[in-house]
Design a protein that fits this description.
five-stranded antiparallel β-sheet, eleven-stranded mixed β-sheet, 3 helices, 25 strands, 7% helix
């Protein structure tokens, strides 16, 4: 594999100037989210979108700040071994040249992605037991082993938290199915006024604080403001807390911790955070190729606000 040194000193300086304190608003994000307006998600008025590139991104403290994450349309936060979390980011509307740090894939990824057509998956390795699952999934495998020229390392960061992918060198996926593009619409009636919401994993915490000035949920990880290199502190329009069952996989890390698999096919409870309110509801996905839909407690669709959407998989 060809290795190049990349420095982000200028971008990091910009990050410092932007500031990441809770009281300062984040810069305006690109107009992304991939959403469609339709009577219902997956309706005839939901056209296909651009091809999806999914990138597995580090979320350990050593891997922060990420690069390119602010441009993702949909971001999944997943539980992984050791009680930590990792990110699966979906890029369609915008595909930054540099994205990362890139880490290894999990069974959860292979279960999430079929609803997005046949996306390209960029990742760095996987446990031998997981590779057959990835091979069998309807996606384009674009790992560092398959497309080595698309990857390089930043020598200013520690290994293994320093691998980045050039999205322009990845094979294209198929168009983003209109059925699985987020349903964008006005906030429904009701909802509980909400300033803060936290999701706790065994050894990690994701926090969301609503900033009334920019109408976005400002993100924290493990109690610290969460920022990306090129954008400063990240704030998003909608957060979906999707409560899921998990089961242990056969994979264990070097410390003997079992890798959990988040079950995203089926149904369960959900909390949608948008516009300074929280909405209790449910999620439903009957099959791997089916989109995940969200409904309020009366069964009406729960739309998201325009812009980046985070889906936080919270174990029941």
């Amino acid at each position: 594999m060809r290795i190049r040194s990349r420095t982000f000193s200028a971008a990091l300086a910009a990050l410092a100037l932007a500031g990441i304190s809770a009281c300062e608003p984040a810069p305006a994000p690109p107009q992304q989210g991939g959403g469609v307006t339709s009577d219902q998600q997956g309706g005839a008025g939901a056209p296909d979108g651009p091809p999806v590139v999914a990138v597995k991104i580090d979320n350990a403290a050593e891997g922060r700040p990420p690069v390119g994450l602010e441009a993702a349309d949909v971001v999944y936060l997943e539980p992984v071994e050791g009680g930590l979390s990792r990110i699966l980011a979906l890029f369609a509307t915008h595909k930054p040249t540099t994205i990362g740090p890139v880490r290894s894939a999990r069974e959860t990824d292979a279960e999430i992605l079929p609803q997005y057509g046949r996306p390209t998956l960029a990742y760095s390795g996987a446990a031998p037991e997981v590779l057959p699952t990835i091979d069998a999934a309807p996606l384009t495998d674009a790992s560092d082993a398959r497309v080595p020229d698309a990857y390089s390392r930043d020598d200013s960061r520690p290994v293994p938290h320093n691998l980045f992918v050039d999205s322009t060198k990845l094979p294209p996926g198929q168009p983003w199915s209109g059925a699985s593009r987020p349903l964008v619409g006005d906030a429904p009636a009701g909802g509980a006024p909400t300033e803060r919401y936290e999701v706790h994993y065994t050894a990690a915490t994701a926090g969301f604080f609503f900033n009334h000035d920019n109408r976005r949920w400002m993100i924290s990880m493990d109690g610290e403001p969460y920022a990306a290199v090129n954008s400063g502190r990240l704030g998003v329009s909608t957060v979906i807390v999707q409560k899921v069952r998990t089961h242990d996989s056969v994979v264990r890390d070097a410390a003997g911790n079992t890798s959990p698999v988040a079950e995203t096919i089926g149904s369960g409870q959900a909390i949608v955070l948008r516009d300074g309110k929280s909405y209790a509801g449910t999620w439903n996905r009957p099959s791997p190729e089916s989109p995940t839909t969200y409904a309020d407690q009366a069964g009406a669709p729960l739309p998201v606000a325009a812009g980046q959407v985070w889906v936080v998989l919270e174990p029941n």
